[in-house]
Every structure is written in structure tokens, then in C-alpha cells.
């Protein structure tokens, strides 16, 4: 569940949000399940944010930074991601119907088991992006032979990731500072 104080800050506007984000630890940005439908989040710093199950349908996310964000099972239909950074983002089990990713950077993103019907990827950077289990034939602008993949390796399984931050699963500790 989204942290109400974090959600309130985001609703204060992108300029205020980005200023606040400069001094906040990454773990404090919990927006899981938040209703952000049709919100103007252009240029928002959502790097490493937890957005699992969030409602972002129709949201404007052009120029936003969503690197390593977890958007698992989020509703993203008709969201606009023009020139958005989504490097290493997790988009498994998402509804991306009609979403626009024109000229966005999806390097190493996992867009697995997602509904891509009518999604547009024209000019997007897709190096190493994994589309396993997604209906890539229903998307527009994906190069026929490119650097994106359809590979089951590394695909998160629902049974092990419900309600947890999957980006930290499997990290090895014991080094200096632990």
C-alpha cells in the first residue's frame, strides 16, 4: 500500500516532488497500489520507486525517470512515456494497452507477461529488454530483428514476489559496510 505522505508529496506537483526526492533515501518511495490515473508526471524522478499494482492509466510520464522502478501488475493503458527512461524497470504482468513508449529508453527492462495490445515503441531503445510471455505481435514499432529478447530466464514468478521489493531479492551481503 502506498505511503500516504509520499503520495501527498507527489500530488503537490513534479517540481516539489523532484526537490523532495533529492534528499530522500530510495526505500522511502512506496507508491504501491496508488491511484495516479491521468496525473501529469512529466519529468518526475521516480527512479527505483515501488509502483506495483499502481493505476497509471492515461498518466503523462514524458521525460520521467523510472529507471529500476517496479511497476509489476500496474495499469498503464494509454499512458504516455515519450522520451522516458525505464532502464532496468520491471513491467511484468502490466496492462500496456495503447501506451506510448516513443523514443523511450527501455534498456534491460522486463516487460514480461504483459498486454501490449496497441502499445507503440517507435524509436525506443530496447537493448536487452525482455518481452517473454507478452503479446509482441499486437504492439507497434518493435523492430522485427533487434536487440530485445523473449527469454524465460530471469522472469519473476508471481508466487515469490507478491508484495515484496523484488529488486533486492538475491543480493549477497557480507561485504564492507554490511
UniProtKB/TrEMBL annotation:
One Pfam family from the record: Pentapeptide
InterPro entries per the record?
5peptide_repeat (IPR001646)
Keywords for the protein's UniProt record, in alphabetical order: Repeat
Keyword Repeat assigned: yes
User: DNA-binding: present as a keyword of the record?
Assistant: no
UniProt-recorded name of the protein: Pentapeptide repeat-containing protein
Which organism is this entry from? Gaopeijia maritima
Amino acid at each position: 500500500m502506498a505511503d500516504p505522505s509520499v503520495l501527498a508529496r507527489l500530488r503537490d506537483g513534479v517540481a516539489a516532488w523532484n526537490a523532495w526526492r533529492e534528499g530522500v533515501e530510495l526505500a522511502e518511495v512506496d507508491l504501491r497500489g496508488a491511484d495516479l490515473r491521468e496525473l501529469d508526471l512529466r519529468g518526475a524522478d521516480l527512479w527505483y520507486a515501488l509502483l506495483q499494482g499502481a493505476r497509471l492509466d492515461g498518466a503523462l510520464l514524458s521525460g520521467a525517470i523510472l529507471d529500476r522502478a517496479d511497476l509489476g501488475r500496474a495499469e498503464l493503458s494509454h499512458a504516455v512515456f515519450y522520451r522516458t527512461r525505464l532502464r532496468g524497470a520491471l513491467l511484468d504482468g502490466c496492462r500496456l494497452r495503447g501506451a506510448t513508449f516513443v523514443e523511450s529508453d527501455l534498456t534491460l527492462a522486463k516487460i514480461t507477461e504483459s498486454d501490449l495490445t496497441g502499445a507503440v515503441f517507435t524509436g525506443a531503445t530496447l537493448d536487452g529488454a525482455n518481452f517473454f510471455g507478452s503479446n509482441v505481435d499486437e504492439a507497434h514499432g518493435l523492430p522485427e530483428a533487434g536487440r530485445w529478447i523473449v527469454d524465460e530466464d530471469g522472469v519473476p514468478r508471481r508466487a515469490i514476489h507478491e508484495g515484496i521489493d523484488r529488486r533486492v531479492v538475491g543480493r549477497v551481503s557480507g561485504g564492507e559496510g554490511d
